[in-house]
Design goal:
alpha+beta; Rossmann fold; two-stranded antiparallel ribbon
């Protein structure tokens, strides 16, 4: 807490990927280095979960093969962080002795099984499934407002919106999300309060929600960036309720 107190009360501010120069007195740099050292082993995308071991695949292991109606199809089994989010090229180490973790191998293998494709009614003429379209030329650029600008446009068009966030996501932090949503200055229709999922008999707090005019903002409790993966029942209930425009009535205790 002493370190956090020194950092915040000194007016230190570090911008993502050095988007802007660090703010605060010169010793903020030392404080920031100490913070990074102490948090190096955290899983930033899900703070309550372990930091999964990284590991690379060989070139041969990256290519999967499946037989669909007697025809062999090849697919890329997974993508590295650099491939999935190209802007990380500017941030990640280029040390060849540090193999990059390949994400999505299990999902890719599963969705390319013949029985899975048959269940999903995917014809044999359709290509094998991959996480990303390798032909896409993704272009990333930075802007101060990020995607905040699109929400007023959608609201003006009468489009209902929901933004949700796992409350243990350290990469896209809950505090920052709450702040930029507040900056939209939308009137509040329903104040901040818990929403519930029924597990067995007793309802369980699954998160919190605040409803603004044109936008609902919900948290999912105890999970991080991949909330639908780790809180499936809660997130499914949340979306079903919202899609049916029940105004959270089925998830909030009266």
């Amino acid at each position: 807490m002493k370190l956090y107190h020194n950092y915040t009360h000194s007016g230190c501010k570090v911008w993502f990927n050095n988007f802007k120069p660090m703010e605060g007195p010169p010793y903020c740099g030392d404080l920031w280095e100490e913070i990074n050292s102490l948090t190096a082993n955290l899983n930033w995308y899900d703070l309550y979960r372990p930091l999964y071991a990284s590991g690379g695949l060989t070139a041969d292991q990256r290519i999967g093969k499946t037989v669909i109606d007697g025809v062999e199809k090849e697919y890329k089994r997974g993508f590295t962080h650099r491939e999935y989010t190209p802007w990380l090229n500017r941030m990640m180490s280029s040390d060849p002795n540090e193999p990059e973790m390949v994400m999505g191998t299990a999902v890719s293998d599963y969705l390319n099984q013949q029985d899975v494709r048959d269940t999903l009614h995917i014809g044999a003429e359709i290509q094998a499934w991959e996480m990303c379209n390798g032909n896409a030329n993704w272009t990333y650029s930075y802007s101060r407002e990020a995607s905040q600008w699109i929400y007023p446009i959608l609201k003006a068009g009468g489009i209902r919106q929901i933004f949700y966030s796992g409350d243990t996501d350290g990469a896209v932090g809950l505090a920052g999300t709450r702040q930029w949503i507040k900056e939209l200055n939308y009137p509040i229709r329903r104040k901040w309060q818990p929403w519930f999922t029924t597990l067995n008999v007793n309802p369980e707090v699954s998160g919190y929600v605040v409803s603004y005019e044109g936008l609902d903002f919900a948290t999912v409790h105890g999970v991080g960036h991949m909330a639908p993966q780790w809180a499936r029942k809660a997130v499914q209930g949340m979306f079903n309720n919202w899609i049916q425009d029940k105004d959270w009535a089925g998830l909030i205790k009266s």
